[in-house]
Amino acid sequence: MRAILEVRNLAKAFGAFQVLEDVAFQVQKGEIVGLLGPNGSGKSTLLNIISGFIAPDKGTVMLDGRDVTSVPTFRIVNEGLARTFQLPIMPQKMSVLEVAMAADTTMHGVLPTLFRGAGFCKAERDTRERAMQLLDELLLTRVMHLPASAISGGQKKLLGIVCALMARPRLLMLDEPTAGVHPNLRQDIVRALHRLNDQGMTLVIVEHDMHFIREACNRCIVLDQGHIVASCKPEELASNERVVQAYLGASVEEARAQIMQKEVA
Ligand SMILES: Nc1ncnc2c1ncn2[C@@H]1O[C@H](COP(=O)(O)OP(=O)(O)O)[C@@H](O)[C@H]1O
Ligand SMILES: [Mg+2]
């Protein structure tokens, strides 16, 4: 079976600092893959390269068998790959609903507000309905008329997911979706992600919360200092020496105890 995402031999340095080296992995259609690793291990850089925000020094990114290395971001979105950001920044003067509507990449997201011709009205209604439905699923209905810059950090993360979903991606990559989100909402996010996965969406999730990883992911890829050190099931993380040492940096016994603790928490 052809992988929906294949990364080959990827390398990236910022100045003299080698952030990623010889990174290679595949994601199969339908998987929910957790991308783990200590702070600074290169997770966000990897997402930035895959989604076309920065170019690698070496290597290839294949989406559904097509080489998309260094292809502009908007084209990659049109190819079916959307992503969210670790620290989302929202426009000052647009409401939550307007931001969600503008993220509709099928063109009729923005145009109808400019050209109010008869042909565009239905498209605008469709975009609005779809945005409202997604805002509802991600529990943002109450704040949809507030300025997008005024909502909480956690709500901005949820709005980031809504925006990514407006593009109807086949592959969705999330950068720390639960960081700053109220713990009560995490279960809702897991449920929403599973629902999307049931509908055929493939997911790659950068996340630190072990409980979330266990609940949400089928497989984990672990980065340490720019190298992939493991690809295993979430329940195998605690028994993988490389992961325990790399991920938590503490003594093995201490680190494993921490992982187990997080798993039962
Ligand atoms: N644009 C950049 N310029 C210089 N250094 C960067 C840049 N982006 C990331 N880095 C550095 O690369 C390393 C990996 O960063 P990042 O990919 O954000 O890690 P992670 O997401 O795993 O925490 C860090 O040391 C970070 O400071
Ligand atoms: Mg990061």
SSE layout:
Blueprint: E1 5-14, E2 17-27, E3 32-36, H1 43-50, E4 58-63, E5 66-67, H2 73-78, E6 81-83, H3 96-102, H4 111-114, H5 118-137, H6 153-166, E7 171-175, H7 183-198, E8 202-206, H8 210-216, E9 219-224, E10 227-232, H9 241-248, H10 252-264
Parallel strand pairs: 3-8, 3-9, 6-7, 7-8
Antiparallel strand pairs: 1-2, 1-4, 4-5, 9-10
The structure holds adenosine-5'-diphosphate and magnesium ion.
The site of magnesium ion has 4 residues, from helix 1.
Description of the structure:
A hairpin with a 2-residue loop joins strand 4 (58-63) and strand 5. The protein has ten helices and ten strands. 39% of the residues lie in helices and 22% in strands. The chain has 265 residues and is of the alpha/beta class. It is globular. The strands form two sheets. The chain has a six-stranded mixed β-sheet with strand order 6-7-8-3-9-10, sandwiched between helices. A four-stranded antiparallel β-sheet has the order 2-1-4-5, with helices on one face. The structure holds adenosine-5'-diphosphate and magnesium ion. Magnesium ion (MG) is lined by residues 43-44, 86, 175.
Number of domains: 1
Helix content: 25-40%
Strand ordering within the main sheet: 6-7-8-3-9-10
SS-derived structural category? alpha/beta
**Mass-distribution shape:** globular
Indicate the CATH topology: Rossmann fold
Which CATH class is shown?
A: Alpha Beta
Strand content: 15-25%
Assembly of the depicted chains: single chain
Number of E-type strands: 10
- Helix segment tally: 10
Provide the low-confidence segments as ranges. none
